[in-house]
Amino acid sequence: MPTKWGNLRRRFRPGGKNSSGFNFHTQSFQLNEVHFLINILKEKFDLNCTVQSDKNLYLIYIRSESMPKFKDLVKPHFHHSMLYKLA
Q: Cβ(55)–Cβ(66) under 8 Å?
């Protein structure tokens, strides 16, 4: 039986580089869920993240100072055709 967080992969759209940081497209998440995910990224991976909103839809933004660490964490798991999203 699927759980709320078990559907994370389906609800979590691919992200992309935004200026000098990175956005996770979490628009289908409620604000409290986005804050929950940001806390995990901060506590487990020491990433500096913020919430960005557009018309009550929320994105997770990885700040530029955390990009080197973020790239080291995720690059081994990216398909080669998607590496441009980290450039």
A: no
Query: Which contiguous run of DSSP H or E holds residue 30?
Result: none
State the Cα–Cα distance between residues 64 and 59, nearest whole angstrom.
15
* pLDDT tens string 15-36: 555 568 888 889 899 999 999 9
The answer to whether 25 and 39 have CB atoms below 8 angstroms apart is no
Architecture of 5-86 per CATH? Roll (3.10)
Contact 21, 61 (CB under 8 A): yes
pTM beyond 0.70: yes
Written as one letter, the residue type at 47 is L
